[in-house]
Amino acid sequence: MSRKKLIAGNWKMNLCAKKAEDFANEMKGTVNTDAVDVVFCVPYVHLSAMKGIFAGTKIGVGAQNMHYAASGAYTGEISGEMLASMDIPYVIIGHSERREYFKESDTEVNLKALAALEAGLTPIICIGETSKQRKSGRTFNVIRKQLAFAIDEMSADDMAKIVIAYEPIWAIGTGDVATKEQAEEVCALIREEVKAGHGQAAAEKIRILYGGSVAPENAKELFSMPNIDGGLVGGASLKASFEKVVHFE
Ligand code: PGA
Questions:
Q1: Catalytic residue among 104, 167, 184, 193
Q2: 167 annotated active-site
C-alpha cells in the first residue's frame, strides 16, 4: 500500500496580489520535497501568478471552488473546464465554509465533484461534523451520509482520482485540533466505507486528509497515523512555518 501524502494549503479569502507573490516566493525557497505532494489552493485571481511563480518547483496550485456546469450563464462563477484549461490540477469542493455561508448542499457538492472529475481535476472533497453532532454521538452517521452523497455515481476507479478531507467543523480555525486518535478513527471509517462500496483496491488508493488547526506542532503525529494521508491546512498555510508542516518528518 503506497499512498503519497498530500499537504494542501487553503488560503481561503486571504492575501492581496503583492503579498501573495511575496509569500509564494518565500515558500518557493523553503518548500522542497519529493516525499509528499504540496499544493496551495489560492483565490482564483492568483491562480495564474502562482502558477508562474511555482513553475519548475515541487509546489502545485489548486482552486478553492468551482461551478458544476462546464460553461453558461452563471455570472461570477468559474468552471472545472476553465481550471483544467489552465492546468490547475486540484480543486477543493464542499468546504464547510461554502456549505455554511453559501448554502452548498450535499447534492451540489456531488455535482461539483463529478464535474471536477469530468474535467480531469482532482477534487478535494470536504466532509465533517459540527461540535453539536459530535457531542451527541452522531459523528459516524454524519460522515457516512456526507460521504455517500459526495461520492454518489462515482466508480471504483474514481476513488484513486479523488481526495477526501475529513474536517471536523469544530476544529477549523479554532486551534482546537482533533487528537490523532479522533482524526484517525474517522479517516479509517471513511476508508472502510469506500471499501464497502468499491472494494479493497479502491480503499487502498484513495487519499484521505485531515484538516482543522493543523500546525507545525501537530503535523507529525497526525500524518503518521495509518489512515491519514496528509492534511488540508488553512491558517498555518499562510505562515512561513508552513514549510515545517510540509517537512513534518
Ligand atoms: P485551519 O483551516 O487549518 O485554519 O483550521 C482548515 C480548513 O478550513 O481547511
A1: 167
A2: yes
